[in-house]
Fold this protein.
Amino acid sequence: PLKPLRQSNCIERFIIGCPHATHHLWRDAASIVEPYHFFCELKMIQRRDFAAVLTALLLVALACRAVDAFLVPRVPGSIPAVIPPPIAHNGRWIIHANEQPNMESVSPVEEGSNDADDGGELATMSKEEGKRYRETLLRLAEWSLEDYKWRSSVFKSNEADRMVEETIARMQGTDPTYVRPMDASEEKIGPLGRWEKSAVDWLAEVIDEEGRRAKQIIALDGRLIRPIESDQLGPLGMLEQRVIDFLRSIRSSEKARVQTKTLRPMDLEESLRGPLGKMEEAVSQFFKEIRESEYLRLKQSQARGGVMVRPIDVPGPLGELELWIGEVLKAEELRAMELNQTQGITLLRPKDAKVPGPLGETEQKAFEFLDRLSEEEMERLRNIENFLRETRPMETNRDSILGVVEAVAVGIIRSPLMFLGVIDRVRELMYSEPLDTGKEVSTKTTKRNSDIEIDGKLE
């Protein structure tokens, strides 16, 4: 009963069949009988497990359809399709909206026909819906372009102001003040500054890429342009290209594995092997090294009359792991002994021990990183204080809104202090004593005589 199914190219019908798999599960079930029969011949499963295996393979079929939907190459301007374009005429094709979207309902579009829009779109919607879709996409692209222009102008203005401030600071012989970590000089920039700089550069490239894509969508009157279809690939286009290449390599390797009836992905030829095969090969190589090291350890133990041979005594991953654990335990033991021998110390950190070990080295690196981060933030705090002192609205432009608000706020805050100062002065005057009149007159006379003597000497 399986022979007619094997002769009807069910696999090809399954791969390029209807995108709506839920409407044609029975045909998919028939096409899945072929790999099931292949596994039965290899005696990997029993025929009584047909229902369970068929259900699992149906789930795999649905997943393959989803992956295949996103791996279909489309021309610029196409909407996200779910099936490949099997029939095309001058780069244009159409799926009738009133029919099932299977292979028979795909028909070429004649020149001058109004059944489909230009650009090779899959018209899986009515004309009105397609028109509304294009108008919406065009409106979004226009808004995106306006946002890009605004962001670009603000960025250029801020960058120009920053360059002017740096030039003036260099002319004055001082370091320019900054607020953002990325604006620090090369000598003072820290981890946060480098991270922010790389993130800002990446976002700037993304914004430029989206601006170019919005211009292309507007120029093509509302056609959808994917990042990978842009004239100049940016970060999003490169990311989409990598994802598609990754999934496409998995798809091609799995097809080759089915065609060659290869069971394991790593058993394919190196030219046909995909990411799954490479990953399986790496994992298999790791366990192979463990098996070989354990087999060698067993042979050495038998040669020594049953004496246990530790994994560290033979090369292998387990030996390296035991070596690292041994170094940690030895360092902790020496740290405990040093703590017992030292008087007046209740805590000895791993990085402060004579033999730091792996834990001490890790702690030392972590503290160096935190110290560098703390220095960077303290320097930035000082620059923020200088920046706020130099750019206070109350001093730079007192008549502005911010200047008036700051002046009023400062006045409100300082008024209680001024009132307390007046009260203290009045209290001081109330508790003061009057000066003696005789002493005051004698003091004035002595001062007048000293002034006369000085004038005579000058004469």
